[in-house]
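TL;DR need structure tokens for one chain.
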Amino acid sequence: MKLRYTLRGAAELDEVLADLAQKSPQGARNVQIRIREIINLLLRHPYAGQLTGKGRLRRLGAYPYPYLIFYRATDDEVVIHAVRHTARNPSSMPGSAPP
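>> reply
TL;DR here they are.
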């Protein structure tokens, strides 16, 4: 199973970790480790996440941290499309229904 990030997905993950690192370097490391664990889970079980309202886009939370990972899965690839904080406006989330 291959892993790929869209440009937006990679940029959002970098932004999340950079913002956290300014406040708490250890917190950023913890979130990064947890997101890596979730992505490794997705590589083993690509259909584990919940389908969103947008085609085959899925999401999975990075519990206990308040982040959602949005991705598409095929039989041979997982593509990360976004990493968002759960406090963001729900209508701005990938796969949300238009207002």
